[in-house]
Amino acid sequence: MLTLDPALESHLQGDVTTHCFAWILRRKDGEVFGFCDHDRTLFVHGIKCFPQSGMNGSEAGSQLGLAVDSSEIEGALTSDALTDADIERGLYDGATVETYLVNWAQPEQAVLLRSSVIGKITRSGMNFTAELKSSAALLDRVFGRRAKRGCDAEFADKRCGINPADPRYAGEGVVELVSGQDLVVVNLSGFTSHWFERGSLHWLSGQNQGSVNNIVSHLKQGDAASLTLQELPVYDVQIGDRFRVLAGCDKSFQQCRDRFANHENFRGFPHIPGNDAAYGFAGGEGNFDGGVLVP
Length: 295
What we know:
About 10% of the residues lie in helices and about 35% in strands. With about 300 residues, it is mainly beta. It is flat, with a radius of gyration of 26 Å.
């Protein structure tokens, strides 16, 4: 139940109201931004809320229990505070958004309607849509580890143990040709085809410097190589842009052992009995003597 300031409650009960919505966005890095759907700048709890963002909000549904409430905010990337590059780099992932009902004639009359966490963000041209989830979404987070066959470490992180600077697993290249999501690059001739599939490409120069793209295909072409990216970078790739690539891993025990000789650091449970083992036990077949399942 909302507790309204008596002055705001009296205003809302009047025949004519002067209210609007304001959003205060708080990023994890400490940056705070304010926006509103009014036509002039408002100060809400000391935060300057700009109108030029063109933001508007959808209806928000509230549910009893622990179900996750959701809504959306839409807007145009017309504010200097909101850039597609920052969205692409994930600076708004996990940020909190406070939604206020404000009397724009007297902005000190404001009530917090809900506090949400930004979920999925989609972009289309210069527009964006951000999904807002209630605090109940925090209950969906996974704590600890899940017992699954595949590795739950990221390739070359501390838990994996692979050195990302090892020249066997990483290399640097230069873009020579661009065709959609396919890049023809030089300086990668020392690596066999498919070596960088499921890997990552880190831009070292150009407009995309500092951003990362996933690689879905790697084919050696003589002294050059062809890389296919999962999605296009924020800015157009230019000939001469430099990048660094890191090998990919399919998270399987077999690849960890045979390709990287890193099976002692494997962070999965490859020998968990599956349904086939359960069916074999019921039928009296299979190896159930307590011996080694995989030599």
